[in-house]
């Protein structure tokens, strides 16, 4: 008779402070040989759906949760925030990679992702903890997901099992915590009426409920992560897209500037006192979709009024305003979720440090010298920050809808200055006479990329560097495993290692591919001296030319769209970008970029310098074609349009540039009702 398979006992954490035992699961990565080292496989545990806060009422601040039964089941993911379906019924993850879990994820992972997550605005404040077995006082990395009004911290794309296993393999074990929090209107509605309502309940400020959820989660971790094996004094906060923008919001918050004062604990736990230290030690910002024109409460209120009108709710002011709020609270969650992209972060006079806008201004010039802006003293933690070359592909559909006359008219209208608009159009080679639609689309995408992602990222990076707290800059130009281009979110495939390469992708001769690249020509000469393989490699392949070729519209725009019929199999690189035949991403190049990125992020979590700081001339590159290494500012200027930013953007200022980026990314047609979708991701 065949022997019965004995399952290992479920992992448990006996939590003294919370007086409960959390029952988790052994992560499937513990039983697979995917990217496994030789020898015994490290065991990874996961505790899912742990409630960290409660929501007393819609549009109210959350409260830390500390009451659990004697045994807490942490084997299943918890509910997520109500959210709309994406195009063609896709989830955010599916639209990001133009695929679904069944096609892209290991079979062993699928059990946890077969069914859609439950959606519940009052039970969505939960977190997932992925931890090595036998953890003790390990660094903690907290992940904030992107997606604006979609997505969750329980995504298969950002499941931390493979990442945590690799951390054990290289001797830098960490704990990863992923959060669920309120999104869309549930997380960011704001108006004067809501401010008055919140004040009546003893709550300071208004809106930013999603940010406050995240902050409560960070506070919960300060108190309770130690029993899971984590070090509450060694937390790295990181995120992508709007999640990265949320990281920036915490980074530039008034609470962070004043050193994070005492925490308001709504339910007493024995031995708990106020937290005086920062809630995180360092931060990582990946392709942040930053709204630098954060609305005031009054401006946010006008958006809420349009939502009320669209819902047929009478908008009242003064003493009768509470009736409108009550009516809005009564709207079913699935209906309200459809208006999620109307709202994001608000400036309520409480959340932000007083000088936060200074961090998005270019360096001031005075008599030919760059002078730092005067900013208030405050804690600024070490920061890694960067973007992907194709982040703007999020708006490829909108960009393809423009024609040249419409672009020219819109830019003139937004700039309200012939000099500024002409300078901008010259910089991006846009004119009334541009008749090549593909070329126009490329130029519009370049403008959106720079205005909405790359230039704000650069301005923030330079401002942080001026404070001397440690700033590490990177660019991610490596192609996606499934779409052959460096689209938005592609770095997540490499960091978390959950998106499989398509069938038919073979390995590559490791001896041919260099371990690193350098700006020093002597290094290339030394590599070439090792034999004909290296000579062929460096004589025939121009990586910078290949990078530029991969940014052409016929290889970039069409290969990533929101049309679910477009897959990696529909993409064909042009001859100018096809020096090697076969798939754009080989197993070798994928592994090289994956391991390099993971190891740099883990080194940072351990308080090490991952590479040379930007102020000392260090920029780290990931891709294209597997290239990794530290580069000079000169190389960086070639990868990003830094000179164009200086010529066209700096005279306008961030507020105007952001408005231009928003207008271009909306497309030429504005939807009715005043609630046009604003694409935050």
From TrEMBL:
Stretches assigned to the Carboxylesterase type B domain: 43-502
Gene3D superfamilies found in the cross-reference section: alpha/beta hydrolase
Source domain of life: Eukaryota
InterPro entries the UniProt entry points to: AB_hydrolase_fold, CarbesteraseB
Keyword Hydrolase: yes
Swiss-Prot/TrEMBL keywords: Hydrolase
Pfam families named in the record: COesterase
GO molecular function: hydrolase activity
Identification of the protein by name: Alpha/beta-hydrolase
């Amino acid at each position: 008779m065949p022997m019965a398979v004995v399952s290992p006992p479920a992992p448990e954490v006996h939590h003294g402070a919370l007086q409960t035992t959390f029952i988790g699961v052994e992560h499937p990565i513990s039983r697979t040989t995917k990217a496994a080292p030789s020898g015994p496989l490290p065991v990874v545990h996961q505790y899912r759906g742990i409630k960290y806060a409660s929501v007393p009422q819609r549009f109210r601040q959350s409260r830390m949760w500390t009451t659990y039964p004697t045994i807490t089941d942490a084997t299943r993911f918890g509910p997520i925030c109500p959210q709309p379906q994406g195009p063609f019924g896709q989830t955010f993850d599916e639209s990001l990679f133009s695929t679904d879990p069944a096609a892209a994820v290991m079979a062993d992972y699928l059990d946890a992702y077969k069914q859609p997550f439950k959606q519940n605005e009052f039970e969505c404040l939960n977190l997932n903890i992925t931890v090595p077995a036998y953890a003790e006082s390990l660094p903690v990395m907290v992940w904030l997901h992107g997606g604006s009004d979609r997505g969750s911290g329980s995504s298969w794309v950002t499941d931390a099992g493979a990442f945590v296993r690799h951390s054990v393999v290289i001797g830098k074990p960490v704990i990863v915590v992923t959060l669920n929090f309120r999104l869309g209107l549930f997380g960011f509605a704001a108006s004067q009426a809501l401010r008055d309502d919140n004040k009546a309940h003893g709550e300071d400020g208004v809106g930013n409920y999603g940010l406050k959820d995240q902050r409560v989660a960070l506070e919960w971790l300060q108190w309770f992560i130690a029993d899971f094996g984590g070090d509450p004094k060694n937390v790295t906060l990181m995120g992508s897209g709007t999640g990265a923008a949320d990281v920036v919001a915490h980074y530039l918050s008034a609470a962070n500037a004043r050193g994070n004062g005492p925490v308001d604990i709504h339910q007493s736990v024995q031995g708990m006192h106020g937290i005086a230290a920062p809630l995180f030690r360092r931060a990582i910002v990946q392709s942040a979709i930053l709204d630098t024109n954060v609305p005031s409460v009054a401006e946010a209120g006008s958006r809420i009024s349009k939502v009320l009108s669209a819902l047929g709710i009478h908008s009242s002011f003064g003493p009768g305003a509470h009736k409108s709020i009550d009516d809005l609270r009564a709207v079913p969650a699935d209906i309200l979720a459809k208006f999620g992209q109307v709202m994001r972060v608000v400036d309520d006079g409480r959340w932000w440090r007083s000088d936060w806008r200074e961090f998005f201004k270019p360096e001031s010039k005075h008599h030919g010298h760059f002078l730092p802006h005067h900013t208030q003293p405050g804690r600024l933690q070490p920061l890694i920050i960067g973007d992907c070359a194709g982040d703007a592909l999020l708006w490829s559909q909108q960009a393809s809808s423009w024609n040249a006359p419409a672009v020219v008219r819109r830019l003139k209208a937004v700039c309200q200055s012939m000099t500024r608009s002409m300078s901008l159009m010259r910089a991006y080679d846009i004119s009334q006479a541009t008749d090549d639609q593909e070329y126009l689309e490329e130029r519009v995408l370049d403008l959106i990329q720079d205005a909405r992602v790359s230039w704000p990222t650069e301005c923030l990076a330079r401002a942080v560097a001026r404070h001397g707290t440690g700033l590490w800059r990177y660019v991610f130009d490596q192609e996606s495993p499934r779409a052959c281009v460096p689209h938005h979110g592609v770095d997540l495939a490499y960091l978390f290692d959950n998106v499989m390469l398509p069938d038919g992708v073979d390995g590559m001769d490791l001896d041919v591919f260099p371990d690193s690249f350098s700006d020093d020509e002597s290094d290339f000469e030394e590599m070439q001296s090792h034999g004909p393989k290296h000579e062929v490699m460096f004589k025939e392949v121009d990586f910078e030319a290949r990078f530029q070729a991969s940014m052409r519209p016929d290889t970039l725009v069409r290969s990533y769209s929101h049309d679910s019929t477009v897959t990696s199999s529909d993409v064909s690189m042009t001859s100018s970008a096809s020096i090697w035949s076969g798939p754009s991403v080989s197993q070798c190049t994928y592994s090289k970029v994956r391991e390099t990125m993971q190891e740099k992020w883990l080194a940072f979590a351990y308080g090490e310098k991952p590479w040379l700081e930007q102020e000392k001339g260090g920029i780290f590159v990931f891709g294209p074609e597997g290239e990794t290494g530290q580069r000079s500012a000169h190389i960086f200027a070639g990868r990003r349009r830094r000179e164009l930013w200086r010529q066209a953007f700096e005279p306008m200022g961030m507020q105007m540039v952001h408005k231009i980026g928003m207008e271009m990314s909306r497309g030429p047609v504005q939807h009715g009702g005043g609630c046009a979708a604003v694409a935050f991701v």
